[in-house]
């Protein structure tokens, strides 16, 4: 959305996927990246997606050059599903906890913003988040690093030949899960939408790819640790269990299957859980269902153990995230509610936060 010619964006750059929300447009692609190179054979016989918008087709073909206009440094990358296809051995997730100084993680975010912006040049106010356990140590660093001038040139796809430039004027950083609470309680003008959530104990659960963030609120205020915390377990843990079972299932064959979380993420996202093998496919969905149930049980147990002193007074547990949607039915928690559009819960909330920031600045200028 725009406020006084400024693009207001909410970003949730997770370990598994990049999610951005600008109000009328949402961006989602796997947070997978590798160095780009000249494409020769990979362009032969390539058919574009038959379905989807121009934006969908572009997201499927992220061959890009990202330039930091302040430093002059530019890099050529393949990202998302294109990186998975063209260079599966080198394509990887960005595991650095401090994404503000990770050049590749920053580039994934910049490309997401370039996809979202409707004009070649845009000024941006950005809202984003960091895991609960790292908020105290990384907040100021993120807000200092996540600004400046950048440009993205698209080398393939429907945007081929286009360059989009942006100036990130300011970033506001909150703990993961806080975005979900904002989405469920406030409008872009700062008006409350659900008074019930501003009273008593409310918990937000946001299971992710590597970690699960838990935020506890009392009368609308997020409580400090240990009541708000991170669990070092997420979808990656479930994938590890599936990989182990898949190897066990094929152990008697000449070449037992050894896979990883990146490949399995694609198998479940693209192939609907069917692993191509031996002139057919192995259905991994039953194994995945068991792992998700175990993940939900572990998360439920850890939450109730940590929040035991207030357990009987928690009147609402908001569950967010794509992984949250996957494990929701297995969570052994009372008063649980799956939010609408759970995968974009944080991104939408961070956008609302950024919009409120812009509105407050605008009011201040008008008053002065």
Question: Can you walk me through this structure?
Answer:
This protein is an alpha+beta fold. It has 2 domains: 2-175 and 348-367, Nucleotidyltransferase, domain 5, CATH 3.30.420; 180-234 and 291-345, ATPase, nucleotide binding domain (Nucleotidyltransferase, domain 5). The protein has 10 helices and 18 strands. The strands form 3 sheets. Strands 1, 2, 3, 4, 5, 6, 7, 8, 9 and 10 form a 10-stranded mixed beta sheet that branches.
What's the structural blueprint in terms of helices and strands?
Layout: E1 2-3, E2 6-13, E3 17-21, E4 26-30, E5 33-35, H1 54-59, E6 62-68, E7 74-79, H2 80-86, H3 103-116, E8 121-130, H4 135-145, E9 148-154, E10 163-175, H5 178-185, E11 201-207, E12 212-218, E13 221-222, E14 229-231, H6 235-249, H7 261-270, E15 274-277, E16 280-283, H8 285-306, E17 314-319, H9 322-327, E18 336-338, H10 345-367
Parallel strand pairs: 2-8, 8-10, 11-17, 17-18
Antiparallel strand pairs: 1-2, 2-3, 3-4, 5-7, 6-7, 6-9, 9-10, 11-12, 12-13, 12-14, 15-16
């Amino acid at each position: 959305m725009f406020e006084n010619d400024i693009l207001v964006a909410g970003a949730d750059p997770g370990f598994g996927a990049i999610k951005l929300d600008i109000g009328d447009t949402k961006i989602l692609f796997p947070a997978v990246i590798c160095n780009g190179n000249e494409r020769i054979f990979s362009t032969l016989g390539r058919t574009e997606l038959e379905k989807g918008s121009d934006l969908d087709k572009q997201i499927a073909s992220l061959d890009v050059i990202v330039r930091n206009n302040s430093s002059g440094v530019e890099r050529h990358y393949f990202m998302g599903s294109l990186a998975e296809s063209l260079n599966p051995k080198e394509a990887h997730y960005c595991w650095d906890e401090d994404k503000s100084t990770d050049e590749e993680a920053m580039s994934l975010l910049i490309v997401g913003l370039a996809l979202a912006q409707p004009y070649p040049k845009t000024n941006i106010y950005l809202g984003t988040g960091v895991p609960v356990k790292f908020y105290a140590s990384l907040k100021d660093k993120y807000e200092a690093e996540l600004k400046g001038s950048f440009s993205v040139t698209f080398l393939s796809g429907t945007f081929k030949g286009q360059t989009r430039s942006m100036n990130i004027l300011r970033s506001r950083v909150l703990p993961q899960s806080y975005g979900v609470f904002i989405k469920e309680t406030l409008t872009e003008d700062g008006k409350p939408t659900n008074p019930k959530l501003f009273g008593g104990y409310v918990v937000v659960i946001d299971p992710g790819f590597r970690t699960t963030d838990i935020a506890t609120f009392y009368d609308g205020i997020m409580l400090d640790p240990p009541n708000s915390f991170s669990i070092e377990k997420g979808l990656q843990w479930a994938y590890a269990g599936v990989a182990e079972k898949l190897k066990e299932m094929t152990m008697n064959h000449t070449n037992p299957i050894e896979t990883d979380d990146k490949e399995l993420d694609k198998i479940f996202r693209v192939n609907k859980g069917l692993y191509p093998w031996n002139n057919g496919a192995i259905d991994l969905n039953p194994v995945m269902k068991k792992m998700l149930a175990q993940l939900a049980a572990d998360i439920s147990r850890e939450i109730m153990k940590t929040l035991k002193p207030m357990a009987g007074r928690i009147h609402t547990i908001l569950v967010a995230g794509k992984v949250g949607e996957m494990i929701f039915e297995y969570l052994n928690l009372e008063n649980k509610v799956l939010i609408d559009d759970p995968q974009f819960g944080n991104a939408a909330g961070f956008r609302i936060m950024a919009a409120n920031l812009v509105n407050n600045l605008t009011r201040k200028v008008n008053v002065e």
